[in-house]
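Deliverable D2.4 — example input (structure tokens):
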């Protein structure tokens, strides 16, 4: 084992984990003793234990061969094992569903900035040195003789105490520009400030085109992770100040309007959840939609391509710009609208797009416009969105009609008339269906 600066006991913080996990960690420590390797709990979970925040993402690291240790554990416990050869890591899935990631202590050498690192085995101290910030560079040992010893060679505990985010060396952001985003994420989540040198290094890295070299999925990953934080408005300020959204698209800029929209987004989600929701919206996707809410269609499609989003995400995100702007105009306008007209506009929208329409509505200056838009959306969510006709394709066949494209026309018309209250009973519907059949048949 490598020389370490005075380990301190983290016995009491380990007790913050559920007892069954503590028991498991003890047993794993004993297994590591048998195998003659040192075993540690490491990274984010250690930080969160010290902060007394709930986090059961268990990352273990073995000084030695992590994968063979994982195999040993899998055999003993009948746990599932997935291996990621490239990074010398493995994931154990225990029979009760608990997941534990196991890696070997390693150092990383970056062949090319922003690329994934090459992996070389190394001591715990070196392994901790390759990490992003001092607060994430601590380990708790699990071997029996050294149970719960805290390894903190870079002053992570002190930085936690002083609420400071600090990189481990000056090349950190260049080695891995995703750390620019991670810095924003942790600073906001914990309300930590960046240590001055770290802030300088970050600002300098953000000015270069390092982020442009990240692959689509890696950049998307960082953006979504940022948008999952509780206070996206704060995150937004960082993104704007550092001009980081230019890496989604060179023409994307964040103005006051976008800032106002981000600010009302939580209200819009709350309003929507109280009324229409059966499913939870994808909040991070919604926030990314908000970032793109006033961008041109070409900027939105460019960003979708840059992030290599899935087809489903892309289809939702495409609603972000002009499409929702058009709907806001219609729904807030003075022109009278029949329920069926509103239904035709809104029924194919993903929930996130509806919420964005609402949020944009909240930012309208005129109270009358805001009122019209929210009232119309409320009626759609509460009532019209659920309206169905009693007549369907089968009924039409029973009425003696031959199936064909006219079925859709008839059913669409019937739904419109139901929505608009022109037919209200099943009998009326059948009567109307017959009449429409004569027209369309
Ligand atoms: P979160 O609570 O958001 O999951 P985390 O610190 O646990 O934060 P993870 O992405 O789960 O972050 O990674 C676990 C640990 O791996 C980190 O605490 C850190 O030690 C290390 N790590 C992750 N990503 C990087 C990176 N880009 N550069 C250096 N170290 C990293
Ligand atoms: Mg984590």
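Example output (designed residues):
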């Amino acid at each position: 084992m490598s020389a370490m600066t005075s380990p301190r006991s983290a016995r009491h913080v380990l007790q913050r984990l559920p007892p069954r996990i503590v028991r498991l960690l003890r047993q794993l420590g004993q297994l590591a003793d048998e195998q003659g390797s040192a075993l540690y709990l490491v990274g984010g979970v250690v930080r969160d234990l010290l902060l007394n925040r709930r986090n059961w993402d268990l990352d273990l690291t073995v000084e030695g061969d992590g994968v063979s240790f994982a195999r040993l554990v899998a055999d003993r416990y009948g746990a599932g094992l997935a291996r990621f050869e490239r990074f010398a890591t493995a994931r154990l899935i225990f029979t009760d569903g608990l997941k534990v990631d196991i890696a070997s202590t390693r150092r990383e050498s970056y062949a090319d900035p922003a690329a994934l690192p090459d992996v070389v085995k190394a001591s715990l101290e070196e392994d901790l040195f390759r990490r992003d910030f001092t607060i994430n560079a601590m380990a708790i040992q699990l071997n029996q003789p050294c149970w719960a010893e805290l390894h903190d060679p870079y002053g992570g505990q002190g930085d936690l105490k002083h609420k400071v985010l600090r990189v481990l060396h000056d090349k950190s952001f260049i080695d891995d520009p995703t750390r620019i985003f991670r810095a924003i994420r942790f600073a906001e989540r914990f309300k930590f400030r960046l240590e001055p040198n770290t802030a300088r290094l970050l600002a300098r890295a953000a000015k270069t085109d390092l982020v442009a070299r990240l692959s689509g999925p890696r950049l998307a990953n960082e953006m979504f992770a940022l948008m999952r934080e509780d206070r996206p408005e704060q995150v937004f300020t960082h993104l704007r100040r550092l001009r980081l959204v230019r890496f989604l698209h060179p023409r994307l800029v964040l103005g006051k309007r976008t800032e106002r929209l981000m600010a009302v987004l939580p209200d819009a989600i709350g309003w929507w959840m109280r009324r229409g929701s059966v499913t939870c919206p994808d909040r991070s996707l919604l926030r990314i939609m908000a970032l793109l809410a006033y961008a041109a269609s070409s900027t939105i499609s460019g960003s979708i391509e840059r992030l290599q989003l899935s087809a489903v995400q892309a289809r939702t995100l495409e609603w972000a710009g002009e499409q929702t702007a058009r709907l806001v105009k219609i729904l807030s306008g003075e022109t009278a609208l029949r329920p069926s007209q509103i239904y035709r506009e809104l029924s194919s929208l993903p929930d996130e797009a509806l919420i964005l329409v609402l949020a944009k509505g909240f930012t309208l200056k005129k109270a009358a416009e805001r009122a019209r838009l929210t009232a119309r959306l409320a009626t759609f969510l509460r009532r019209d969105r659920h309206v169905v006709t009693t007549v369907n394709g089968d009924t039409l066949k029973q009425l003696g009609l031959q199936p064909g494209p006219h079925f859709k026309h008839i059913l669409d018309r019937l739904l419109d008339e139901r929505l608009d209250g022109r037919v209200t009973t099943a009998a009326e519907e059948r009567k109307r269906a017959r009449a429409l059949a004569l027209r369309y048949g």
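The radius of gyration is 28 Å.
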